[in-house]
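Quick start: what a row looks like.
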Amino acid sequence: MGPQDFDRAWTKQQKYLVDQMNDRTTGTVDEGKDAKTLLIENSRKADKAALFNFASMAHNNHFFFESLSPQPVQIPHLLSSLFQQDFSSIESLKIEFLATGRAMFGPGFIWIVKLAAGSKVAESRFRILATYLAGSPYPGAHQRRQGVDMNTQGIAYQSRSPKSEQEASEMIQQARPANSVGVMGPHSFLARQAETQSPDLATTLYPVVCINVWEHAWLPQHGFEGKEAYLEACWNHINWEEVQHRAELI
């Protein structure tokens, strides 16, 4: 990644994402929370979709650049041994990882994730995962639900009219319909049940490697046919010491 691409994909974009995230949390109960916390807490709130997207993108992009090193880094022996148990060889891991990135039709991120101890999928420690757009690898953000049923929103305005978009959103979320039969969103049976239940985290995973495959990260320098070259270059500059450090914390 050249200086201009770095400036675009990191300096300018990350500032934009963080600024947008902060604009939506300043003066609210979410002010001061980190991007990961914001994306998980708001992943199931339709009226917070913009906040989720900016927080998730800021987190993913930061994780991507933290995964890289200016100079090639050897894979530590312990990490290499673990990868070989799951992918048969480092070359097989590389081939599968890069093939997954090439096959992504559209913007997103490609990850290597580590499964937590006690996971139902106990036969392997590491997996390759692709997320599209601002999608998140964290299981806590996987059960996104539509939080507003437009068929019942009118009940929110029976007493007074909202003075702002934010107030309208809050009124919609707080209102309770007289009849909830067939209702979706916060008044549905599933949503009421979800209020007391966490998402199914039986297979809990943690990211250890992230590569950004949004077009702005590779298209200007590598051209329309250069995605493969970009992915290869990223692979050659993964900071495997940082990856092992992340894996050891799990």
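That is the whole record. The CA atoms of residues 56 and 136 lie 6 Å apart. Strands lie at 108-115, 126-132, 205-212.
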